[in-house]
Amino acid sequence: MSKKSASAGADTETRATSEHAPDLRLWLRTLACTNLIENHIRARLRAEFGITLPRFDLMAQLERSPQGLKMGELSKRMMVTGGNVTGITDQLVAEGLVVREDSPKDRRAYIVKLTPEGRRSFRKMAEAHESWIVELYAGMDEKQRNQLYELLAAVKTSASTAAAKKK
Asked: d(Cα 66, Cα 124) in Å, to the nearest integer?
């Protein structure tokens, strides 16, 4: 087995051993699961729709806000720089999937909206995306999925509380 193919199967969880703290091993397992799912979705979006995950994410934000969003708001929601949002938006404008309009309230800002074609394209992608997610969790029964959902809520609360104390 080549070095490249050996490392291709490796994930963040392989960094931990039984000597590491259980919380560290848990975090690495969570990260490994997130990376596996995200990489699968990235590959499927690229193969089936010729689109990147960041472009899909930007369109998802606009789908949730039919009145459109300012570039700064998109940047905040996507947790990326304004430059990244501008680049993605430029690509989507060129493809006729989104439009930029002058903001009626702020002459310095643009409002970005899905075009009718962008809305149709996004709906197709979103339906496929949902089916891929369902497929990825198909190995778990309903009770396990519900338990995991509740446990992750507890993790989210715990992490949020700890982060707030550090501010």
From this structure: 17
**Structure tokens that stand for 86 in this block:** 């501008």
Q: Tell me: the pLDDT tens digits for 130-143?
A: 999 999 999 999 99
Whether residue 89 lies inside any domain: the answer is yes
**pLDDT tens digits, one per residue of 71-85:** 999 999 999 988 899
Residue 5 within any structural domain of the chain? no
pTM for this prediction: 0.82
Residue 92 structural domain: 21-159
